[in-house]
Design goal:
With 644 residues, the chain is of the alpha/beta class. 49% of the residues lie in helices and 14% in strands. It has a nine-stranded mixed sheet with strand order 10-9-8-11-12-13-18-22-21, sandwiched between helices. A seven-stranded mixed sheet has the order 3-4-2-1-5-6-7. A two-stranded parallel sheet has the order 14-17. Strand 12, helix 18 and strand 13 form a beta-alpha-beta unit. Helix 2 packs antiparallel against helix 3. The termini are far apart. The N terminus is likely disordered.
């Protein structure tokens, strides 16, 4: 109850009454001042009564229509306070009209002098009143906060607009308090920003000095791009000195336009691995999906569910969520009912391996755009279950593509992987086979060799941060249980991309595509998994190899030491987007691709593993197994096709 009273201790109607009373008293003071200057005409009783009553009514009307009483006093800015001047000016205009009507013979210079004086006194009185209200508020708040634990003192990195905006944003917080700004530029050292000192820091020695001088407990990054840029500088120094790091969540963490709670959180490994903001033409993307029926397969997965979230903000007419995982899809449904109450969406339990179920969905909802994200993705598991990998990743993709053609879907976007490039495992090869079929079908349609109008787009990218079953959630779980953290090899490296970033690029690629294309994304610089594990341990407040051990378990079946670089000048063609490229790949005739997929599905249905793997290797000659029992079939192939 006390908290509610503190935050809303003056209702807007009370503020309106106080403003009106203050303004009226100010007008009365003006008359007294004029009387002291021996202006006899203002001392006459009719004039005084009219002036005071007119001032009260004019103030009430001016303040009501300019809505100055609605301003939240504790968040007042110069721009908002200027509205008080406008309201006071409105009061003087109404007062002038009233007094002229009352006494048309009143000297113009006298009236003008009275109104000018009244304007100045009114504005001053209103500002003084608000300052008093604000002072009382802070006294009460300080008394209340004195009974609470001391807030975390933080230094904000940078002096840009977003950094400066943190100060008023945290003024109300009982958990965080800004004590200064931190930057690498000496030119601004000892200056003030928003009343807070700016400190220089470029080494661990500098940071120790600043922490001691300011009493700060941690560093706050106002932008995710800053955290990434400082990953090997300030962030590394903070980790070495065990200094807390915080970040302001960006728009990707908002849901339905609402800010996340809390508005500040501790920094995560994803923040340090992310990249600078990707420039996306949101207008073109919005226009591309606005008012359309869109279907997402694998809608309950990491990529699929994020695609659904982003599509929900693009004005789609109807969103079809297709997945065979009951509980995850139920959870997505609950989330969307809460976050997107105005969105028309339909969750559908179904399996891409079942053409009949797909046919029902396409027939019932007639999607115009389909995002195909349903797939089996875990490399070691698919190495042990190659027939199921074929059934889902190859046959399932073929089923979705065929239904898109049959029901005249405008565009199908298939989510692929960097593991499809020179695959060394079953999972990667099945994704490459799916690419082959989809591309062959799309090209056959474009060349008039197959009926249909669907455009097929494939997007390749690497690992996504925080996806279900990925390395980061696994490391987090191991750290929480005290370790050890298991890394397969000390030199293993992977490309990473955040889930929202990947989904934005997928939608951008879908917008760019005007024909059958395989798009690849610029994945940036590969990350050493051993370094990733050590940084995660440090971020959790532990010392690697001391508090939590790191163990090397050896490469898993089908696993590469280094992933393929997706975008090079030799294997791609640039597009209008600097992060998206068109892959140069071998093209297959549709008929041979169809026969190949039919044969693979037949073998997989009979669980004839050797036949499945042999056909996969014949169909994708660059598929060479690594650390796998299927290496034997590579040796067979070498015997059948000796080097020339």
């Amino acid at each position: 109850m006390f908290k509610l009273t503190l935050e809303k201790y003056l209702r807007s109607t009370i503020v309106l009454a106080i403003d009106t009373l203050t303004s009226t008293v100010a007008s009365g003071l003006v008359l007294i001042f004029a009387y002291l200057l021996r202006s006899s005409s203002v001392s006459e009783r009719p004039f005084v009564v009219t002036w005071v009553i007119a001032a009260a009514i004019a103030s009430l009307l001016a303040f009501y229509f300019t809505r100055v009483y609605k301003l939240v006093i504790r968040f007042s800015t110069i721009a908002e306070l200027s509205r008080i001047c406008i309201a006071a000016l409105g009061k003087e205009m109404l007062l002038a009209v009233t007094m002229v009507a009352f006494d048309g013979d009143m000297p113009v210079l006298l009236l003008a002098a009275l109104l000018a004086m009244d304007f100045l006194v009114t504005v001053g009185a209103l500002l003084l009143t608000r300052a008093t209200m604000l002072g009382f508020y802070w006294l009460v708040k300080r008394a209340r906060n004195a009974q609470k634990p001391r807030p975390t003192n933080i230094l904000v990195f940078g002096i840009g607009d977003k950094s400066a905006a943190i100060v008023p944003r945290l003024r109300e917080s009982s958990h965080y308090r800004v004590v200064g700004f931190l930057m690498h530029d000496k030119d601004h050292k000892d200056n003030l920003l928003m009343g807070k000192p700016i400190y220089y820091c470029n080494s661990d020695k500098d940071l120790r000095h600043v922490l001691s001088k300011s009493g700060a407990d941690g560093v706050l990054f106002a932008r995710s791009a800053d955290a990434h840029e400082e990953r090997n500088d300030l962030a590394r120094i903070c980790q070495d000195l065990d200094v807390k790091m915080f970040i302001v969540p960006d728009i990707d963490e908002m849901r339905d336009g609402k800010a996340p709670v809390p508005s500040i959180r501790k920094i995560r490994i994803e923040d340090l691995l992310g990249r600078s903001e990707i420039k996306i033409n949101m207008k073109e993307i919005h226009d591309n999906f606005d008012g359309k029926v869109v279907m997402v397969t694998g809608a309950a997965g990491s990529i699929g569910s994020e695609l659904c979230r982003q599509l929900a903000r693009l004005g789609v007419k109807h969103l079809i969520m297709f997945d065979n995982a009951e509980t995850p899809l139920h959870n997505v449904r609950l989330e969307f009912e809460d976050k997107f109450p105005d969105l028309e969406f339909t969750p559908v339990i179904g399996d891409v391996r079942q053409p009949e179920r797909l046919d029902y969905v396409f027939r019932e909802f007639r999607p115009q755009v389909v995002f195909h994200a349903a797939a089996y993705k875990h490399v070691p598991l698919m190495e042990e279950n190659p027939c199921e990998a074929v059934n889902v990743n190859v046959h399932g993709s073929r089923n979705v593509a065929d239904k898109c053609v049959e029901y005249e879907v405008e565009k199908m976007v298939m989510i692929s992987t960097d593991k499809a490039v020179n695959p060394t495992n079953i999972m990667g090869c099945t994704k490459r086979l799916a690419e082959i079929y989809v591309q062959a079908l799309g090209l056959a349609i474009e060349q008039g060799k197959h009926p249909g109008k669907t455009t097929f787009v494939t997007t390749r990218f690497g690992n996504v941060l925080g996806s279900n079953g990925s390395v980061i959630p696994r490391f987090t779980e191991q750290i929480e249980t005290g370790g050890p953290v298991t890394v397969t090899h000390p030199e293993i490296r992977r490309f990473f991309m955040t889930i929202p970033e990947a989904c934005r690029l997928v939608m951008e690629a879908a917008t760019l595509a005007d024909g059958t294309r395989i798009f690849v994304f610029d994945m940036g610089t590969p990350i050493k998994i051993d370094d990733l594990a050590r940084r995660m341990i440090s971020l959790a407040g532990f010392t690697p190899d001391k508090d939590i051990k790191i163990e090397y378990s050896g490469l898993r079946p089908g696993e590469k030491l280094y992933e393929e670089v997706l975008a090079t000048k030799e294997n791609t063609i640039p597009t209008d987007h600097d992060r998206i490229f068109v892959a140069k790949v071998r093209k297959y005739p549709y008929e041979s691709a169809r026969v190949m997929v039919d044969q693979l599905h037949e073998y997989a249905q009979k669980v004839e593993v050797p036949a499945v793997v042999r056909l996969m290797k014949r169909s994708v000659p660059e598929f060479i197994s690594k650390h796998s029992v299927f290496e034997i079939y590579d040796k067979e192939r070498e015997t059948e096709t000796p080097n020339k």
